[in-house]
Design brief:
Elements (H helix, E strand, L loop, with lengths): L9 H32 L21 E4 L2 E6 L2 E2 L1 H6 L1
Antiparallel strand pairs: 1-2, 2-3
């Protein structure tokens, strides 16, 4: 029934408003907990079917000792002093 219906008494409208307020508060309180619960399970990405692991010998080291000295690399790219040595 609509709340502005003449058949509603003041008390019934007040009770209805309190129910609505309770539901809103309940949603506002439980929503952060639900969001936290979903982020806990989202920490580790799922293992895909077609994922190929990286072989241990393929990764590039950060430092390489050579006859011209130590060569410094960052993710496979040489630093400025390493470029000058080469």
């Amino acid at each position: 029934m609509p709340s502005d219906s003449p058949s509603y008494t003041k008390h019934e409208r007040k009770v209805e408003m309190m129910k609505n307020r309770f539901v809103r508060c309940l949603v506002l309180v439980t929503l952060p907990f639900l969001l936290c619960a979903t982020t806990i399970y989202a920490d580790k990405p799922p293992q895909m079917k077609m994922t190929t692991p990286i072989a241990p010998g393929v990764a590039v080291p950060d430092k390489i000792e050579s006859s011209i000295g130590t060569l410094n690399l960052s993710y496979g790219y040489p630093s400025a002093d390493t470029v000058e040595k080469i």
